[in-house]
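Entry 12.
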Amino acid sequence: MLELGKMNRLKAVSKTEHGMYLAESDPAEEKVLLPRKYTDGQMNVGDMTEVFLYKDSSDRLIATTVKPKIMLHEVALLRVKDVGKIGAFVDWGLEKDLLLPFREQTKTVHAGEEVLVALYVDKTGRLALTMNVYEYLRTDSPYQKDDTVNARVYLISRNFGAFVAVDDQYSALIPKKELFVDLTVGETVTCRVAKKEEDGKLTLSIRQKSYEQMDDDAEAIVQKIRGYGGKLPFNDKAAPEVIKREFSMSKAQFKRAVGRLYKERRIEITDASIILKES
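Predicted 3D structure (tokens):
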């Protein structure tokens, strides 16, 4: 069976002025044309060759010896060539650019931009791209708890957090409770593996372990107080929304860091402020 969107090892079964017709083994089987420009004039009937199968502008199955940058159900970072009325057209290494429909975009894309996409077959039987890569990402990453990884955001969910692809290929999530900074689709971020789930997916944190993060948090608070002229206009009882906006950390993390600074006698806490005690 000829497989669309994949490399196929086929046999040359007949020759025409347009090129060579290929089939799995028998001339009576389903055939596909390999245009003459790909045969180099040296292919003979009976020869075996590796070709990629896709559809041309007339929706006819066609073969090429050029290997594209992405195969069916794979994920890859590809560049947008142009944007039209029905979606974006993406360079995937073949003459005909591939469509990334508007409905398959998790954010608006622009010409020249690189996007993380997966290759699939749409309802009309054509190859197309999607930025909803969740089901195509791998779950066999080599990473374990506390490893540092690079992750690319491909979807932001108000309910769950940021869905990301580690190394552009492994499935991972930065939970909503860990999002103390605003991330955007396409952005890459360095994370720590908080947990490797039983199904192989990764749960990530954009912060270090609490005892390691506390030093950085405490220094960030000191710098912020200095920015306010030595007196922060709220204390550790401030609303979580205020703390997240000012420090990109949770209230618990803020209170831990403030507690450390207080024990070190670097700050004074009043009913309405935190005052820096510079030496």
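Annotation: The chain has four domains: 7-64, 75-134, 138-205, 210-276. The domain at 210-276 is CATH 1.10.10.10 (Arc Repressor Mutant, subunit A).
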